[in-house]
Specification:
CATH architecture: 2-Layer Sandwich
Number of strands: 4
CATH class: Alpha Beta
Number of domains: 1
Shape: globular
Helix content: 40-55%
Order of helices and strands: HHHEHEEHE
Strand content: 15-25%
Strand order of the largest sheet: 1-4-3-2
Largest sheet: 4 strands, antiparallel
Distance between the termini: 39 Å
Length: about 190
């Protein structure tokens, strides 16, 4: 189902979705100002941790560039009127193409807009139940093709009134679904 959404609504929806995901991730340290000095007696960070952080920066950079490309292609260049979730799926494909793992948007309402949004794997099914039970985040360490991966799922609530354009049977702040990630552990 595609409904006409003004460009600002789409942008706000994407920002709201990103904010909802950001606040639900556990263990996020508070931001530190760039000009703030660390104590002289502080240990240097572990080089492996620095490399993992650099990998995270590359991942975030690719994702944000993917959003810019797909939003431009969808709403500016093509002048389409597609739901923001359609752009999200395109960015997940961009992420997978760049070797940054995979992502899926899955339904938690029991009435998915598309059959492809149904939880398929055991992890996805477990994640939907946990999220419907009030958990904003769930993860597991597993292997895929003999390599370690982290599977994680975060809650996707209806964060703004624009969400109700495509999901008329929910109220603001109701759980719509989950974002499911599978990222290589490096």
């Amino acid at each position: 189902m595609t409904r006409s959404l003004p460009y600002r609504s789409v942008a706000l929806l994407l920002v709201g979705l990103a904010a909802a995901v950001a606040v639900t991730l556990p263990g996020r340290p508070p931001a530190v100002a760039a000009d703030e000095k660390s104590p002289k007696d502080a240990k240097a960070p572990d080089p492996a941790a620095v490399e993992r952080t650099r990998a995270t920066v590359r991942l975030l950079d690719n994702l944000h560039k993917g959003y810019v490309i797909e939003i431009t292609n969808t709403y500016v260049k093509a002048k389409e009127q597609a739901p923001a979730a359609t752009v999200l799926k395109k960015v997940f494909a961009f992420m997978e193409k760049n070797g940054d793992g995979t992502g899926r948007l899955i339904d938690a309402t029991g009435s998915p807009l598309r059959d492809t949004n149904v939880a398929k794997t055991e992890f996805e099914k477990k994640a939907v139940e946990a999220i419907k039970g009030g958990k904003p985040y769930i993860d597991e360490v597993a292997t895929k093709d003999g390599k370690p991966v982290l599977r994680a799922a975060t809650v996707v609530p209806a964060v703004m009134d624009a969400c109700l354009n495509c999901h008329p049977n929910v109220k603001k702040n109701d759980v719509l679904g989950a974002l499911v990630y599978e990222l290589p552990i490096r």
